[in-house]
Amino acid sequence: MKTLLVTGGAGFIGGNFVLAALAQGGVRIVNLDALTYAGNRDTLASLNGRDEHRFVHGDIGDAERVRQLLAEHQPDAIVNFAAESHVDRSIDGPAAFVQTNVVGTLNLLECALAHWRALPLERQDGFRFLHVSTDEVYGSLGPLGRFTEQSPYAPNSPYSASKAASDHLVRAFHHTYGLPTLTTNCSNNYGPYQFPEKLIPLVIQKALAGEPLPVYGDGRNVRDWLYVGDHCSAIRRVLDIGRVGEVYNVGGDAERENITVVKTICALLDERRPLADGGRRESLIAYVKDRPGHDRRYAIDAGKIKRELGWRPAESFDSGLARTVDWYLDNQAWVARVLDGSYRMERLGGA
After folding, report:
1. How many domains are contained in the chain?
2. Catalytic site residue 136?
3. Are 190 and 258 in contact (CB under 8 A)?
4. Does 117 reside within a domain?
5. Pairing mode, strands 128-134 and 77-80
6. Would you state the pLDDT for residue 37?
7. What whole-number percentage of the chain has pLDDT above 90?
8. Which end of the chain is flanked by fewer CB atoms within 10 Å, N or C?
9. What is the CATH number of the domain that holds 297?
10. Residue 7 neighbours by CB under 8 Å, 6+ apart
């Protein structure tokens, strides 16, 4: 049974990864999370009392805490989800993104390197440091083409710039020190347990409340959508059989304009929770001033991970979005507890 140190494992993607990995079995997980606005212990409630899961409240920038966990649990791999990840928040306050995503990742790498060097040779061969990143590091695409692992970095927001820096540090620790690293760059995730300032859960909640549905600009910005369960299966595949030092792009083959996503959510909700007056929630759509530096289009070429590791997404956009809407309808208590904090679905990042 392998032991994983998962950082950011109470967040959206990290929490889904922890739940899926423990459901699949064969691993123990030490879960380090700082429990910022995006971290939520409720996501992990089903794991209470499970010996295979230990939650630790802490920051990846705390070298003493990270070293202690590595010494105590002797993990076979580190999977780094810990990050400030919300673009609008990075516009309002970029310093926190640099601190966590750059300085924090550097600290985690330094601690991992010392741990790896101290391992017996046979365990060194099997150790992995997997860094989870984003397609936003590549910048913005025109109407054609897709990002590949060879695409040049051209980040356009403080968030994507901080993630680009962390990606480069991971690469450097492999090429300079030999640390066995892996990096994944994913497209836009959606699914259960997502913090409700992101587009899909935000629209679901506002539509249920009968509030205006804000759409940036003309609504025609394009994203490649990836169901979070498919992303987690890709990460597990890369961790198990990915080639050391490589980067793998993970996408859902599901490009959609933002306005199409919003209208699809409205239709799903109208079908499941019809309005008393028979109206359509699409009438709630309200176009608002665009986000500063809003990238026009992202699209991932996931050919490498498909060819080399045999991974493919199990969900189409239609099936994944329907599952997501159903989950939020069935878990309004979880949403209510999230919204008991400081976030009230207000707009951020309007600087």
Report:
1. 1
2. yes
3. no
4. yes
5. parallel
6. 79
7. 84
8. N
9. 3.40.50.720
10. 14, 32, 33, 60, 78, 79, 80, 81, 82, 108
